[in-house]
Predict the structure.
Amino acid sequence: MEKSIQGVVDIGGKPIVHRRAIATGLVHLSTTSKEAISSGNVKKGDVFEASTIAAIQAVKETPRIIPHCHPIPLESCKVDWVWEELALRCTVTVSAHYRTGIEMEALTGVSAGLLCALDMVKSFEKDEKGQYPTTRISDIVVLEKHKAE
């Protein structure tokens, strides 16, 4: 039996158009973590600054992380953070003129931003057994995807 595995999908015949994608997600944290982030008392530094950089780097590195993604000449990347009670929401907006969508870049950025935020406060999140009983990352979704024809 022979098996052929598709490599990178040929998009050469598709037109270059303006594309934009917005993705979002949450990291659910403890009161202690929220207070430490809000007061700037996290040993590893400013959670918003570091996590924004992580999100931007991940957006740019998406083709290296997700095998079938094309390298896309990104034109913009915006990272927003907002508290929703004890959950920290990361929203990433990316845009480019290219032949294929950029929602994977937005999703990868959100994921990395949330992971970085969690990494920075994980010492506050651990219980007496060293576990994370209530900490979780959730609701990572594409909010919008636009393609201007």
User: Anything to note?
Assistant: Strands lie at 17-28, 74-84, 87-98, 136-148. The mean pLDDT is 95.
